Model the fold of this input.
Amino acid sequence: MTDLVEQRASFHNMAASTQHDWDIIMPLLDEHSRGGSARVLDHLQLLAGDYSGYAVDRLTHSLQTATRAQRDGRAEDYVVMALLHDIGDTLGAYNHPDIAAAIVKPFLSEELHWITQQHGVFQGYNFFHYVGGDRNARDQFRGHPHYQAAIDFIGKYDAPAFDPHYDTAPLDFFRPMVMRIFAAPRETYIQSAR
Done:
């Protein structure tokens, strides 16, 4: 691998790339990709200290959501989804569910990805009417196969996870779960092109 690290692709325009270039790039890309779980956990820690007016900071909210799901006996992939559902908050104040969904998509089932992507509108049932929105906006998804699963996620885990007195598990408790789930994607954009 050391020899490959020293090598560089010859193209300056991807349209001019060669098999030799990709023989250099792919092993390094694979190595970089395997470090994704650690980068996700590092990024999640950026939520610490960001209260934005809530009773707990965003990291505690994420940890608490995952703790509640884990203690309720949810599968590991569900717990990881619960942990990461708000990871997009630091980059996308207006579309954080989309960012979180993009991060988890290669690693989670279609159902868990969908819950992540739509959790914002489902959580909106609890507050949209206080900020000038339609609390029933989630009804646009009525009839969707994961509609009730999203309602359950919000009601059982996400909505009650703002309690500063709840015995919340630390990030290190979830670290092995994230490492396992992010060890290998179910499918990547490269695999789907084959």
